[in-house]
Automatic annotation (TrEMBL):
InterPro entries linked: WH-like_DNA-bd_sf, WH_DNA-bd_sf
SUPFAM superfamilies: Winged helix' DNA-binding domain
Chain intervals with Low complexity compositional bias: 17-31
Positions of region (Disordered): 1-31
Name of the protein this chain belongs to: HTH marR-type domain-containing protein
Organism of derivation: Sandarakinorhabdus cyanobacteriorum
Length: 234
């Protein structure tokens, strides 16, 4: 039986915390997951931790073009080397997350697949307008749809933004984010400008699976549409 929907004021950003909900069950790995994806996630998490640790160090960095004494200070030299290392690690983690598996040839373009996924996301938002009395939330699916579109357009997704996309109370969204990260469906990557911050992105295998799903769905839609067109023409 559908549970009653939680009324939330529109346009308030992250949804208000509703009634306590049980934590989501452990999610299985995505179909077709390979050991390489698990290695990728572990490497990305390790790099994120290293960048965060470096960012937390209280090291003097001096000012560009500053005093010659500061420029020759060994502590300043070390600090600059550490800062360069942090930037390099952040860039490496960024490339690892951005290296999505090459989508197989479905006979349908990547752009058409993403357009379908974005349409599904927007349709899900319309459900609340036309069926306001029903609670039909699927936060994990909403997150995968949102992250797929963000990946295609090379947009960064913050934790707060993904909580809003999930359309559930923020505490529930955060539990799902943690479960999906542990399952390797999504990954965290450090911000190149600030190692203490991180963004969320869809894992390469998950992105490829979403494209395959979209391609199958578009073919199915075309077959069903053709059947109705034949009936209407009869």
């Amino acid at each position: 039986m559908a549970q009653p929907a939680v009324n939330r004021p529109a346009g308030t950003g992250v949804p208000d915390a509703g009634p306590a909900e049980p934590a989501p069950a452990s999610l299985p790995a995505a179909p077709g997951a390979l050991a390489s994806r698990q290695d990728h996630v572990l490497i990305e998490q390790a790099l994120s931790a290293i960048v965060a640790d470096i960012g937390a160090l209280d090291l003097p960095v001096g000012r560009p073009g500053g005093d010659a004494a500061l420029a020759g200070d060994p502590a300043v030299t070390i600090a600059r080397q550490v800062a360069d290392m942090a930037q390099g690690l952040a860039a490496l983690a960024d490339r690892l997350v951005g290296q999505a598996a090459v989508p197989p040839d479905h006979g349908i373009s990547e752009g058409d697949c993403i357009a379908f996924l974005e349409t599904q996301f927007r349709i899900r938002r319309l459900r609340g307008r036309h069926l306001p009395g029903l609670a039909l939330g699927e936060p994990a699916w909403d997150m995968l749809l949102d992250l797929s579109v963000a990946h295609y357009w090379r947009r960064e997704t913050s934790v707060n933004s993904l909580c809003i996309a999930a359309d559930v109370p923020s505490t529930t969204a955060l539990r799902w984010i943690n479960s999906m990260t542990k399952a390797g469906l999504i990954v965290r990557r450090p911000c190149q400008r600030d190692g203490r911050r991180s963004f969320l992105a869809i894992a390469p295998d998950s992105y490829a699976a979403m494209l395959a799903l979209a391609a199958d769905a578009l073919r199915t839609e075309q077959r069903v549409r053709s059947r109705y067109q034949r009936r209407n023409a009869a």
